[in-house]
What we know:
CATH class of the domain at 27-140: Mainly Beta
Number of strands: 24
Radius of gyration: 37 Å
Order of helices and strands: HEEEEEEEEEEEEEEEEEEEEEHHEEEH
Strand order of the largest sheet: 1-3-6-5
Strand content: 25-35%
Distance between the termini: 117 Å
CATH topology of the domain at 27-140: Immunoglobulin-like
Amino acid sequence: MIRRAALGALALVSCARIGEPPGGPPDQAPPLLVATSPDSIAVLPGFDDDVEFRFDEIVSEGTSPNFGLGSGDLEKLVLVSPTEEVPVVRWKRSRIAVHPRGGWEPNRVYRVELRPGIADLRNNRSKNGRVITFTTGAPLPTLTLTGRVVDWGTSRPQVEALVEAALLPDTLKYRTATDSAGRFVFGPLPPGNYLVAGVLDQNRNNRRDAREAFDTVRIAAGRDSVGEIWAFRHDTVPARIQTAAPNDSLSISVQFNQQLNPYQRLPPDSIRVLALPDSTPIQVEAVLTKEAYDSNYVRPPTRPDSAPADSAALARARADSIARADSIARARRQAEIRAPGRARVRAPVVDTADRAALRTKPPLYDRLIIRIGEKLVQARRYFVEFRGLENVSRVPGRTGQGFQMPEQKATDTTRAGADTSRVRPDSTRVRPDTARVRPDTSRARRDSIGR
Length: 451
């Protein structure tokens, strides 16, 4: 009886486990979206059902559960607009059902977006998403917004940045995310005035949290191009000096606790450098960023020779570039996979030019170099003060800090070194044989005792 119960429990466990059937080549294709419900671009008054995404195989529920906190694996892949609440996302083997936590409201345009990243049981992830747009009685939307989100800290387009379009004046927010090049095509949306925000969503919870970098652009009715949104961390507290130290004998390096307004031009009377303890003012000649200071005051190292390039080295470099191109082509061919019953899938080629640093705005910085008119004195203290200094949020403030020049120990270079010209003793001479037999002194000792 016990043996039958054990066999029955084992059979139940084996039936409950979902896995790949034995035999045959492994399935390397991601899950394929085959149907959605309801149809997109439809007017559905009184709609009170789930929005469903159906796949051709069982998809993974993920390792993080979907409890309505926004931290579940499936919750992070679903955007329901216009609402800021975490939607109800339910896993149904080969289907994903979604509806707002507060239900569908009448006479409203809804947008349900499934982002790329749905995985099957073999962790093959889909690189494509799907958007379903429908209304519960409102007119069909016609507006499509396009633009790009840029991280101002790095001047590079931001991948998977959160985009929020608030319909004014009721601030209904529609949300989407940028692609691998930082671009977004957002629509269809209801016509009207919009306040569009680009957010660097660091925790990937599809919401703008405190201390996350963002920026906004206002779009008038009838416009569809948002342009570039340069996101940065907003701060209502003025910038403060974090450290001040000598850069060289004629300049002072000042590090701030946050990034500064790159468009600000500081007048000469807004910066003071005082020599302590008598507070003697020192003339300030220029205040520059580190890059500008190096290009104006630091001489580039000169090469001892200006010989032409070696032709053999040029040939080797050309051969290396050809070999790299061949290796990239081979890697792209190997990325093409074929699974049973599936079409050939080619790995997407990422255009690195779309991710290059942009020059539309000047780069941010949090360090300045002060060029002064006289040399800094060793072991003396100084005080640096900025007035009206703006951070990147253009909040002005006053900050100052002191520092002390280090005292360098003088080295005596007049002392004569050891005379290395003396002839060293000849170490090749044969040393005396210390192993010779010593003379017998025992007889003389006995004679002295006998006397």
